[in-house]
TrEMBL record:
Residues 114-235 form the GST C-terminal domain. SUPFAM superfamilies: GST C-terminal domain-like, Thioredoxin-like. Pfam families: GST_C, GST_N. InterPro entries: Glutathione-S-Trfase_C-like, Glutathione-S-Trfase_C_sf, Glutathione_S-Trfase, Glutathione_S-Trfase_N, GST_C, Thioredoxin-like_sf. PANTHER family: GLUTATHIONE S TRANSFERASE D10, ISOFORM A-RELATED. This is Glutathione S-transferase D1. It comes from Drosophila navojoa (Fruit fly).
Length: 236
């Protein structure tokens, strides 16, 4: 009888210790961000998808908080998003997405181990970084933050990027394969930012269908949209 009691006590202790360790790990995952930032919002959705809690630390870029010595020590490039997981610091949103799903994903569905599937996801991530999101930044940011006039040539690059995305999505429900991946999460953060900028997504049938579905199936969509609405204030 006493052996059974000791075993049950030990098992309970192990369970509590695991829970305590898990909670400790969660509290150590600091996330430096701005809610309106598309790259930051993609990380929030990925964290939600793998069940990770982020200790969000808002950085006021306009006040120069990213240049404070304590933050530069964490991230010498002083950019957001920046994640600090139990002492391990990482920045660049797409690198963070991959890190989160590889370390904390219960399965590999968001970033499959198959080399061909993973290569396609990587291609879409690079497309988002270098073409789709970059076209947004090049066209809108000078207008929003430098009061520059709209550049029609840069707008054409947005249209070209959406043409590419529309082609990728021909006959597809997801942007890279037959299920939700980190590529969908990254591109959803970007496309929803175009949405609040009042870019006409409806002209791209495949993108529109994907967008409506992605909003329904992506964990953390509501928080992403709240961040979009925060960003929309720059357009008002």
């Amino acid at each position: 009888m006493s052996t059974v009691i000791r075993f049950e006590t030990w098992r309970t202790f192990r369970s509590v210790r695991r829970q305590f360790s898990t909670n400790q790990e969660k509290t150590k995952m600091d996330f430096y961000y701005l809610p309106g930032s598309a790259p930051c919002r993609s990380v929030i959705m990925a964290a939600k998808a793998v069940g990770v809690e982020l200790n969000k630390k808002l950085l006021n870029l306009q006040a120069g908080e990213q240049l404070k010595p304590e933050f530069v020590k964490i991230n010498p490039q002083h950019t957001i998003p920046t994640l600090v997981d139990n002492g391990f610091a990482l920045w660049e949103s797409r690198a963070i997405l991959v890190y989160l799903v590889e370390k904390y994903g219960k399965t590999d569905s968001l970033y499959p181990k198959c080399p061909k599937k993973r290569a396609l996801i990587n291609q879409r991530l690079y497309f988002d970084m270098g073409t789709l999101y970059q076209s947004f930044a090049n066209y809108y940011y000078p207008q929003l933050f430098a009061k520059a006039p709209a550049d029609p040539e840069l707008f054409k690059k947005i249209e070209t990027a959406f043409d590419f995305l529309n082609t990728f999505l021909e006959g597809q429900t997801y942007v890279a394969g037959d299920s939700l991946t980190v590529a969908d999460i990254a591109i959803l953060a970007t496309v929803s930012t175009f949405d609040v900028a009042k870019f006409d997504i409806s002209k791209y049938e495949n993108v529109s269908k994907w967008y409506e579905n992605a909003k329904k199936v992506t964990p953390g969509w509501d928080e992403n949209w709240a961040g979009c609405l925060e960003f929309r204030k720059f357009f008002d």
